[in-house]
Design goal:
Layout: H1 2-8, H2 11-22, H3 24-47, H4 57-88, H5 94-120, H6 125-151, H7 156-178, H8 182-200
């Protein structure tokens, strides 16, 4: 607690807090975009750790655009709406809030992300969604079930900032799922189709 109070008194944190008050959505969009780039660069370095690193700026730009144009505005709207739902239905348990978020909101959010990532590359989104959505949702449940125990106990204005920092890790998983080799994705989908045909005989 002493460390947090000390941080709150620093000039950068005070400036960021003022920016959240005066320009909440642009501040959240800028932060989300910047941290998504950090996430993707980390993922690229991990993927190419055995070879000289060459930054794929186009890939990072696509993810940053998602964060700025969809992710940050979505969360900016979502958390105040959540608070109205919690009050209306008298939901106080953090566990229930996390469960509702992951069961009802995470799947369509991740579906939209995988759709966007494929279309932004000029690819068919259906194979990517079929191959990667179950794995990405599993990643989300494991990670955000813990992270949201913090999220839902923070003041609404700073929740997006906390989620953005937490997403430095989860964003690398999103990058991994969105950039899985298309050949591997196609093979995975084909195997699933073959197995279903075999069972239907």
């Amino acid at each position: 607690m002493m460390v947090l109070r000390a941080l709150q008194r620093t000039a950068p944190v005070r400036a960021y807090a003022r920016s959240l008050e005066t320009h909440p959505l642009p501040t959240k969009c800028a932060t989300s975009g910047a941290l998504m780039v950090v996430s993707d660069v980390m993922r690229q370095k991990l993927e190419k750790r055995d070879e000289p690193f060459h930054w794929d700026a186009a890939r990072s730009s696509r993810l940053a655009l998602w964060a700025v144009a969809f992710h940050a505005p979505y969360l900016h709207w979502l958390h105040p709406w959540y608070e109205r739902i919690w009050i209306k239905y008298r939901i106080r348990s953090t566990v229930v809030k996390v469960a509702l978020d992951q069961a009802l909101m995470a799947p369509p959010f991740l579906f939209c992300f995988l759709t966007y990532s494929a279309l932004a590359e000029g690819a068919d989104p259906i194979p990517r969604i079929r191959a990667q959505l179950p794995a990405l949702w599993t990643d989300s449940v494991w990670f955000w079930s813990l992270a949201h125990c913090v999220t839902f106990n923070l003041p609404v204005p700073v929740r997006v900032l906390w989620q953005d920092f937490a997403r430095i890790y989860f964003g690398s998983l999103m990058s991994l799922r969105a950039n899985a080799p298309l050949a591997a994705t196609a093979v995975s989908v084909a195997k699933g189709d073959e197995l279903r045909r075999h069972k239907s005989r």
